[in-house]
Amino acid sequence: MSDQDISSNANTRKLKTYQEARLQNIENLRKLVVDAAATLLQEEGPEAVTVRKVSQKMGCSTKIIYSLFVNKEGLAQQLYLDGCKLLANEFEGTPQAADPGQQMLNFGETFWQFGQRYSSYYKLMFGGAFTDFKPDEESMHGTATAMRQLITVISNAQQKGLIPEQYDTESVIRIFWASLHGVIHLYIGGHLGDVQSAHAVYKQTLSLIVNSLLPDHST
């Protein structure tokens, strides 16, 4: 095969159909819009994320954003899924412990830090900041994926008989998550004083939950 034939074949492989190029451009544009919305979310909070403000930041018409996401809720879903990825990354960086109770404490602290470091994402995902947005099946799957390590620790502890049999995995997750979220939500609402006071209440709540779920664990 001549060099010309090789070059021709390489160029052919690089060619894309109009449909492929169009889909790639749409996906790139969607990412740019989500990035702009994420910047507004982090810099100005959830209330700043409107189609109009995102379009202004992008320098495009609102029609383009509506064509990509249908409405504000469609954009909120993408931000929610991005928040799930951030939460997953935080859990990935959590210190590891052989003792399941200590590991649950570590994951609980990670959840608090996520709420502090990404407070706007937290409010969007768990605080009802977008009143018309309700997580759909894809969003809930993203949440479960983000919490995969916590679910694994609890499931393994149950299999070893460390957690009382009357609790199933889903119930334990809900108890753990709801209790910790309650403290964070009260803090966000201004009911628990400054961040140090709220964090102290959070750690006490976390310790009580772990000790109740794993009676033989000592914190």
TrEMBL record:
Superkingdom per UniProt: Bacteria
Residue span, HTH tetR-type domain: 27-87
Name the DNA-binding segment ranges.
50-69
Q: Which PROSITE patterns match?
A: HTH_TETR_2
Keyword entries, A-Z = DNA-binding, Transcription, Transcription regulation
**One Pfam short name:** TetR_N
Coiled coil, from the record: none
PANTHER family listed in its UniProt record: ACREF/ENVCD OPERON REPRESSOR-RELATED, ACREF_ENVCD OPERON REPRESSOR-RELATED
| Name recorded for this polypeptide | Transcriptional regulator
Organism, by scientific name, is: Paenibacillus glacialis
